[in-house]
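Project outcomes to date are best conveyed with an example. Our students and postdoctoral researchers have been running inverse folding experiments weekly, and each run begins with a structure described purely in tokens. The record below, which covers 283 residues, was selected by the lab manager from last quarter's runs and is presented without edits.
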């Protein structure tokens, strides 16, 4: 008899409410810590409220993983509801301790859980969930499902272009001198997740147009390896910019479906409002 599997993730995936309800996904909220205390992403504030607070914050906010107690409570609830186990797909361990806390919380709740380090964030996490659910319907065992989801990590890429160095400076990622020079010379960074799940600067160019060109070249390189059917044009409160970029991308890649996709507020804390990027999972 097939096991009843609960699907768990965190708000780094930033799933739509429609997706969550349709697929019965259980989502743990990451925290944004402002002066008045921690606020749970998508629970205690909307994205509009987050960016309003970010613009007006006297002290730069920090981010943190979901409260351990919330993790334990979720697994206890799933156990009571008759699930045999959970498959939890979380954002990169290099950036958040959520995936490390997952098995500890599951052990405390006495509930079998398979915790997967996606080594990334955003849209690829949704793809991993969708693939896992398909395999569950096919009757595969949880261990087999986990193995195939983990294989997708190597086929996932995500890169983004901060609109400015201001938030990177506030969060301690770049110096004041670097911010001054970037504004003076119109320098843009292209930042990407690496194979280990960390983020690093992979290119510095002058002008936004060149930064986008570099991201497109990376997409072209990916397509040579294996097909890419969908690309999320990720953004930090910049859907208009994403939609505008999609117009050009559709001309270059007419067979790919491009979708404007908001990024987690946790990315917004560091990358800043206006950020744009691309992310995909190869076939």
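After processing, the design step wrote out the following sequence:
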């Amino acid at each position: 008899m097939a096991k009843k599997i609960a699907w768990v993730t965190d708000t780094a995936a930033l799933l739509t409410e429609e997706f969550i309800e349709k697929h019965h996904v259980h989502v743990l909220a990451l925290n944004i810590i402002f002066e008045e205390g921690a606020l749970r992403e998508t629970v205690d504030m909307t994205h509009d409220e987050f960016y309003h607070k970010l613009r007006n914050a006297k002290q730069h906010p920090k981010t943190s993983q979901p409260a351990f107690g919330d993790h334990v409570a979720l697994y206890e609830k799933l156990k009571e509801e008759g699930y045999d186990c959970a498959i939890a797909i979380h954002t990169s361990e290099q950036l958040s301790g959520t995936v490390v806390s997952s098995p500890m919380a599951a052990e405390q709740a006495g509930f079998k859980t398979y915790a997967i380090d996606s080594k990334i964030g955003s849209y690829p996490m949704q793809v991993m969930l969708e693939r896992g659910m398909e395999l569950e319907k096919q009757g595969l065992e949880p261990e087999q499902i986990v193995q195939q989801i983990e294989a997708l990590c190597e086929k996932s890429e995500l890169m983004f272009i901060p609109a400015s160095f201001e938030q990177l400076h506030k969060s301690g990622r770049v110096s004041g001198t670097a911010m001054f020079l970037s504004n003076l010379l119109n320098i843009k960074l292209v930042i990407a997740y690496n194979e280990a799940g960390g983020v690093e600067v992979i290119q510095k160019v002058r002008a936004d147009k060149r930064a986008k060109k570099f991201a497109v070249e990376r997409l072209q390189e990916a397509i040579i390896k294996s097909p890419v059917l969908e690309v999320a044009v990720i953004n930090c409160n910049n859907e208009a910019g994403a939609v505008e970029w999609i117009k050009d991308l559709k001309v270059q890649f007419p067979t790919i479906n491009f979708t404007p996709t908001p990024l987690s507020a946790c990315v917004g804390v560091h990358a800043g409002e206006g950020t744009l990027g691309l992310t995909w999972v190869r076939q």
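The CA atoms of residues 156 and 281 lie 4 Å apart. Residues 5-30+65-153 form a domain with the Rossmann fold fold (CATH 3.40.50.10170). The training component of this project remains on track.
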